[in-house]
Automatic annotation (TrEMBL):
Organism: Streptomyces stramineus
The protein's annotated pathway: Isoprenoid biosynthesis; isopentenyl diphosphate biosynthesis via DXP pathway; isopentenyl diphosphate from 1-deoxy-D-xylulose 5-phosphate: step 2/6
Gene coding for it: ispD
UniProt protein name: 2-C-methyl-D-erythritol 4-phosphate cytidylyltransferase
Enzyme Commission number(s): 2.7.7.60
Family of the protein in this entry: Belongs to the IspD/TarI cytidylyltransferase family. IspD subfamily.
Function text: Catalyzes the formation of 4-diphosphocytidyl-2-C-methyl-D-erythritol from CTP and 2-C-methyl-D-erythritol 4-phosphate (MEP).
Length: 243
């Protein structure tokens, strides 16, 4: 079997504040996307990494990645393709670029640059053991409230609470999510053309297909770099690794 990783990196990163697309911003001097590519290539099973660039940015991303060649045990083939308007569309375009002999696919957010290789390998191992969809996940620390869909209320207005799901039964999911390639292709083909934001989670599409999805332990260092404080945390993690 051959394993590839698709890295959607076409997001603008609005919540991180003004600046370059999120994946191209530096973490301790190296673009976040480079950290994410290395995190996938660090797994010996991953032979190919497909980076999904902003729709008009494939050339810029290719040039950037060429400045950080993969070496040693991180060696993997690298493809860069243009992405789409939503994460779901970007992943679909990345899957479309995979060669026919790929049987296992990881989908990994560029925004999770620090996922440890042991987590990547655990996801791949669970797919190889027969699970069509595998998701790294952690228990929640915060209690979660459900609210009604917003209907014109101004941001900052107090919101009515609709319910409180039992925290012990919730999990926060991370990436890389691992899939039997045919299952993920089928899910993206069946649920293409979603309106609005589209799916924020590939395993969710597989669930809608009716195929089983299982969780394996995630890792706190696989957190998503979304807001400015996350950059501070990511650089602290890198500093600790280098110490
Ligand atoms: O916005 P969010 O943090 O959920 O994005 C998760 C991942 O999806 C990021 O790596 C981002 O670059 C990617 N993405 C994408 N294409 C989009 C939107 C987001 O590849 N149109």
């Amino acid at each position: 079997s051959r394993t590839a990783a698709v890295i959607p990196a076409a997001g603008r990163g609005v919540r991180l504040g003004p600046g370059a697309p999120k994946a191209l911003r530096a973490l301790s001097g190296t673009p976040m996307l480079v950290h994410a590519v290395r995190a996938m290539a660090a797994s010996r099973a991953v032979r190919l990494v497909v980076v999904v660039a902003p729709p008009d940015g494939a050339e810029e991303v290719r040039t950037l990645l060429d400045a950080y060649p993969l070496t040693g045990h991180d060696r993997a083939e690298l493809l860069v393709v243009p992405g789409g308007e939503t994460r779901q569309e970007s992943v679909r375009l990345g899957l479309a670029a995979l060669p026919g002999d790929i049987t296992t696919v990881l989908v990994h957010d560029a925004a999770r640059p620090l996922v440890p290789v042991d987590t990547v390998d655990a996801v791949i191992a669970a797919v190889h053991d027969g699970a069509p969809a595998v998701v790294p996940a952690l228990p929640l620390t915060d209690t979660v409230k459900q609210v009604a869909p917003r209907t014109g209320a101004a941001a900052g207005e107090p919101e009515p609470v609709v319910g409180t799901p039992e925290r012990a039964l919730l999990r926060a999911v991370q990436t890389p999510q691992g899939f039997d390639r045919r299952t993920l292709d089928a899910a993206h083909a069946k649920f293409a053309a979603a309106e609005g934001e589209g799916a924020t989670d590939d395993a969710g599409l597989v669930e809608r297909l009716g195929s089983p999805v299982v969780l394996v332990p995630g890792h706190e260092e696989a957190f998503k770099v979304t807001r400015p404080l996350d950059l501070v945390l990511a650089e602290a993690v890198l500093a600790r690794r280098r110490a």
